[in-house]
Amino acid sequence: MDQHTRITQVLNEGGGVLQLTPTWVPRSFNEPGKRLRLHPDDLYAFGMDRGGICERWLGSITVALNGPKTGPTEGMSRVLADRKTGETILFADVVRELGAALIGETLMERYGTWPTFAKLYDYDKPLFHHLHLTEELAERIGRHGKPEAYYFPVQYNTYLGRFPLTYFGFDPATTREQVKEAIRNYGKRDTRITEMSRAYRVQLGTGWYTPAGVIHAPASVVTFEPQWNSDVNTIMENVTMGEVNPEGLLTACQPEEEKGDVDALFDMIDWEESTRPDYRQTYFRAPKPIEQTQDGMTEKWVAYANDWVAAKEVTLQPGAKALLKDAACYTALVVQGHGRFGAFACETPTLLRFTDFSADEYFVAESTAKAGILVENHSLCEPLVILQNFANNNPQVPQTV
Question: Which residue from 10, 109, 160, 367 has the fewest beta carbons nearer than 10 Å?
Answer without folding.
Answer: 109
